[in-house]
Amino acid sequence: MEQFKTALKRHSLKATPQRLAVHEAMLNLGHASADMVTESIRMTSGTNVTVASVYNILTQLSELGIYRHRMSANNKMYFDVNTFRHIHIYDRENHSYKDLIDEELMELIEGYLGRRKFRGFKIEDIDIQLVGRPTRKRSPVRKG
Question: Strand pairing partners for 88?
Fold first, then answer.
């Protein structure tokens, strides 16, 4: 939480109770939409916040680079507290994200793409998202 307060101060923002509540919810959730954060705040602290105010805070923090954001297949904006380089796995059934931390894979991708030229573009960032469905383990068939 102290790192978050320092980041806010660096951007001349106050550590308001609302911003602190949003950040605490995001730390617990990892990847979340404004609806999810709002519900988490209401459940854990009993504070009555609106989805709009939570969305505005999340968007502001994302624009400052404190969080990252991405659009899901269900047209919701999801925010991510992890701003370090990593890959996302998007669960298209449950509309949720998981982090895939694989430094070797990221180095291979960045090394390959770093040598490529893309006419009319200067590549600033690499953001990889894998899309899938959860695997379901089947119960063994019992013969009886």
Answer: 99, 129
**1-83 CATH pick, 1.10.357.10, 2.30.29.30, 1.10.10.10, 3.30.1330.60:** 1.10.10.10
Report the distance separating Cα 47 and Cα 94, nearest Å.
Answer: 27
Q: How far is CA 15 from CA 4, 8, 76, in A?
A: 9, 7, 26
Which superfamily, per CATH, for 84-135? Ferric-uptake regulator, C-terminal dimerisarion domain (3.30.1490.190)
Tens-place pLDDT, residues 87-117: 999 999 988 999 999 999 999 999 998 888 8
Alpha-carbon distances of 104 from 73, 100, 107, rounded to whole Å: 28, 12, 5
For the record, the structure tokens of 144 come out as: 């009886």
Residues whose CB falls within 8 Å of the CB of residue 32, separated by 6 or more in sequence, listed in order: 25, 26, 40, 78, 79
User: Angle, to 10 degrees, between the axis of helix 51-63 and the axis of helix 34-45?
Assistant: 120
pLDDT in tens, 1-30: 889 999 999 999 999 999 999 999 999 999
